[in-house]
Amino acid sequence: MRALDDKVKKAGITVLNQIGVDPGVDHLYAVKMIDTVHRAGGKIIDFISYCCGLPAPECSNNPLGYKFSWSSRGVVSALVSYVT
Question: Alphabetically, which GO biological process terms does the record hold (predicted)?
Answer without folding.
Answer: lysine biosynthetic process via aminoadipic acid
